[in-house]
User: Fold LAFE_0G07228g1_1 from Lachancea fermentati.
Amino acid sequence: MAFIFNKKQHKLELPISSRGHAKLSPKKKGANSAWSLPLKLKLRSPVGILFILCGFLYLLTRVFTEDGSGASYKSFTLEDKEYYDYEFKDVDVEAIRKYDSGAEHYLITKGGVEALSEADKATYDREVQMLLDSTVEEYDLSKYEGTSHGAENKEHVLMLIPLRNAENVLPLMFKNLMNLTYPHELIDVAFLVSDCSEGDNTLGALMEYSKELQNGTLSLLLADQEERNDKANPKGSQDLFLKYMKQEYLDKVREAFNPPFHENYDKPFRSIQIFQKDFGQIIGQGFSDRHAVTVQGIRRKLMGRARNWLTANALKPYHSWVYWRDADVELCPGSVIQDLMAMDYDVAVPNVWRPLPDFLGGEQAYDLNSWVESTEALKLAKNLDEDDVIVEGYAEYPTYRVHLAYIRNPNGDPTEVLPLDGVGGVSILAKAKLFRNGVHFPAFTFENHAETEAFGKMAKKMGYSVGGFPHYTLWHIYEPSDDDIKQIAAIERDSGRV
Ligand SMILES: Nc1nc2c(ncn2[C@@H]2O[C@H](COP(=O)(O)OP(=O)(O)OP(=O)(O)O)[C@@H](O)[C@H]2O)c(=O)[nH]1
Ligand SMILES: [Mg+2]
Assistant:
């Protein structure tokens, strides 16, 4: 056996040309000498000359007709590091570089037959694969369609959380994240922080908590923080309203956020990404500001833009599911992702209620955006402007729809499913293929709806199943309104407590 180096083109030659240019290194692509050989060959015959002439004329017309500017493509240089700095798997830059520098390698056996030893063949195959991996990522998307048993099938979930002026709910949100029992190593989390007020520290706090979470130390930090807060604010001064909440609810909260936790509570997530981008939201984030009927359409469309932007930037081919979650959820079963997957729908939402002080009824249906379409609402839509957005729960829009929220029975079967048309955004589990196929959160009026409700309608219109669990409940935080605070103060005064 002998190793020789040869310049002749050969079937055993590795698929990297050595003629002074590197396919792998774009910095050399501009100085391509591969033209020289075909030119010499072709110029020997009139057909060759004609061929070259036609090519030249074609190039000229392209340059002068494409955008009228006549500007030609400008090449630029990427440093090696930048070029390889993406998610290409298994690339050993040094191994690839040896082909860049021009070596060709042939192996001849004793009998003059070209062959590779087992070891050489393995190296050859691995390096060829590496070359492909440096420019091509291959996914069989049929493997990422999402099944009802995602955890057992090791399906990756992209968890998306929009945030605005949300610093004070972050500890609660992170505790709910850690409470999730879907394998953390299969969850990529992506936050979008937008349009926060001046002085708000959502982004800074989010970074700090995320680092601690990925370090496995967040639960310690939060416990410490709570202890310090309790000392600084003795009970009763800040959270007066808690005295008026149902004891049963408060017990559930205590149970959810105190040990024993599930065994992987502190386990880091597969990844956490934080995006910051403003969308020009000017409507206040206070309870009364964001609920005025006149602002709903504008607010919802901007949220639609924000959600679409986040999906486009965070979704990877290997994700089978996308789970949207609001930060201001207080109580949520840790198994929510598996439970929603088990519904076996393309889009699945739970019911969302909120607790209230006793004097206001103790609890209330909260998210009215999950509903079944009605003939009355369709008639109403016909009389509206094309651009009008119907919002639920306002006297201005009597839709008479069946709302998921209102058919809840606290003792009902939590696995019972109601097919829906519109969905609310507090907690949406959707198969990732919907987004790949173009379903999104309309930032314009779609069938007189916008954002999540229009998302539900669009998904259904594109042939996907949309469903909700009427008896499976997530609890939104209670934020006392100005009126509630006044009422609490009056009760306290009357009872002589203050
Ligand atoms: N990125 C981004 N996040 C937002 C914006 N507005 C609200 N959020 C976040 O989106 C989630 C839902 O916000 P909410 O203000 O509760 O809005 P909502 O759920 O539509 O309204 P409610 O039903 O009143 O709770 C929370 O996690 C907010 O922090 C925004 O303009 N941009
Ligand atoms: Mg909310």
The chain is about 35% helix and 15% strand. The two ends are 99 Å apart (CA to CA). The pocket of guanosine-5'-triphosphate (ligand 1) is lined by residues 162-164, 166, 192, 194-195, 281, 285, 290-291, 302-303, 306, 326-328, 426 (CB under 6 Å).
